[in-house]
Amino acid sequence: MEKEFDLTQLAQYDGQDGRPAYVAIDGIVYDVTAVPAWKGGKHHGNTAGNDLSAVITHAPHEKAVLTKLPKVGTLK
Question: Which domains does the chain have, with CATH numbers?
């Protein structure tokens, strides 16, 4: 069963101090921990542990990268 996250729970997955790095896009939570560009939970001024639905539309890759990421749950 998929885990459900609220924004407070998601914020705990910020990629800092050995914690996993998760981001939410369009209600789905993805694990970006193993993505080198997300080392330390930061990527081009964005921080893991947040809903980045509005931000990803401005990224050069847009949503194309999402199919490569593990889905870990949903954002409620």
Answer: 3-75 (3.10.120.10)
